[in-house]
Amino acid sequence: MNPKARELVSIHGKPVAVRGLTKAYGAVKAVDDVTLEVNAGEFVALLGPSGSGKTTILMTIAGFETPDIGTIEVGGRDITALPAGKREIGMVFQRYALFPHMTVAENIAFPLKMRKIGGRDAAAQVEAALAMVRLEGYGGRRIGQLSGGQQQRVALARAMVYQPPLLLMDEPLGALDKNLREEMQLEIKRLQKKLGATVVYVTHDQGEALTMANRIAVMSDGRIQQFATPMEIYDRPANLFVAGFVGETNLIDGELARDGAAWRFRLAGSADTVALEGQDAVDGWRDGMRAKLMVRPELVRVGPIRDGAPSGLVEELIYSGGTVVCMVRLPSGAMATARIAAADAAGVTVGDTVGLEWPADRVRVFAA
Ligand SMILES: Nc1ncnc2c1ncn2[C@@H]1O[C@H](COP(=O)(O)OP(=O)(O)OP(=O)(O)O)[C@@H](O)[C@H]1O
Ligand SMILES: [Mg+2]
């Protein structure tokens, strides 16, 4: 990139605050009392299943939807009543939404034109934006002459060309194939870090959220279920929904068992129990209460049978690179998954009865 271009494109991200946002369409509460505070220069992912309200939040921040209740602040300023065109927000949509009859350069210049920036200034800014997304020399092309990945880069350049302090992206990579999607994830992340932009990024792909975001807001039914770093979300999901939605996991049925001042978990269909350590939500727990124990497959170890400890029948071993996925039938009839090192799987055979172990402080228990 030429030095001039570097000067032209630097974004100073501003903090964003959504407060008490509620938005209904008829009887459907698309967003239900959502509060979300994003720091300047932070990359936040809104992650959730279809219909959970992600796009509605983004559209409200952008000003294309009006809240029923609640406010939107950018840079500490309340912009709830400001028209979309007056908000300094760059937007990237799933289907690019480029103008097919315009050239690449004209597409990128469009937001500048809307802001009455033209001539040499605009041309330099467009050039800088093209360089930023590694499309130097493509300005004269028509949109139809570009690949999907290149079109998405143009959409990114168009969103960033006027250096908005806030970028909103709604499933921007949804139309791309897997390889290109992963390449573009890194590209977007690189740009966001370099420019210092604040990004709110919608996705229903948990892998994408885990790799890209500083923090993830996990959504379901118009509500934020948890807002935390990828590591916290993965290791300490706040509830069953988050536990099941993010990452591979075992959710083992059973019940709580009091053990003096401590708690144990008894697996369904057996007398086997495991210790529980470092659990927060013990308020309201009662002896014998039904619960689910969450343990990630990579934490489960397969070994010799021990008295009173969980065990099961190995039904399947699936080799995948350096690890082996070991499927074990528990006494309850449910299947548990252990992801173990290939070396540890050497002594395990389908049909074996094996003991299962995991670190007591790395599991989560959710009482029913
Ligand atoms: N313009 C609209 N009119 C009526 N209902 C709407 C409208 N926009 C959204 N909804 C409803 O609001 C809810 C939330 O929709 P939203 O588009 O925000 O979900 P989403 O999380 O973005 O889903 P997806 O992953 O499928 O894009 C859904 O039940 C949807 O049907
Ligand atoms: Mg959506």
Distance between the termini: 57 Å
Number of domains: 2
Helical content stands at 25-40%
The shape, in one word, is elongated
Hetero groups in this structure are: adenosine-5'-triphosphate, magnesium ion
Q: Nutshell version of this structure?
A:
The protein is α+β, with helices and mostly antiparallel strands and 368 residues long. Helix content is 26%, strand content 33%.
Description:
There is one protein chain. The protein has helices at 3-8, 54-62, 104-114, 119-132, 148-160, 178-195, 206-212, 230-235, 240-245, 342-345; strands spanning 16-25, 28-38, 43-47, 69-74, 77-78, 89-92, 166-170, 198-203, 215-220, 223-228, 250-259, 262-267, 273-275, 290-295, 301-303, 311-320, 323-329, 335-341, 353-357, 364-367. Strand 11 (250-259) and strand 12 (262-267) form a beta hairpin. Helix 3 packs across helix 4 (119-132), helix 3 runs parallel beside helix 5 and helix 4 packs across helix 5. The radius of gyration is 25 Å and the shape is elongated. The N and C termini lie far apart (57 Å). By secondary structure, it is an alpha+beta fold. The strands form four sheets. It has a six-stranded mixed beta sheet with strand order 6-7-8-3-9-10, with helices on both faces. It has a five-stranded antiparallel beta sheet with strand order 13-12-11-14-20. Strands 15-19-16-17-18 form a five-stranded antiparallel beta sheet. It has two domains: 3-243, P-loop containing nucleotide triphosphate hydrolases (Rossmann fold, 3-Layer(aba) Sandwich), CATH 3.40.50; 248-367, RNA polymerase II/Efflux pump adaptor protein, barrel-sandwich hybrid domain (OB fold (Dihydrolipoamide Acetyltransferase, E2P), Beta Barrel). Helices cover 26% and strands 33% of the residues. It binds adenosine-5'-triphosphate (ATP) and magnesium ion (MG).
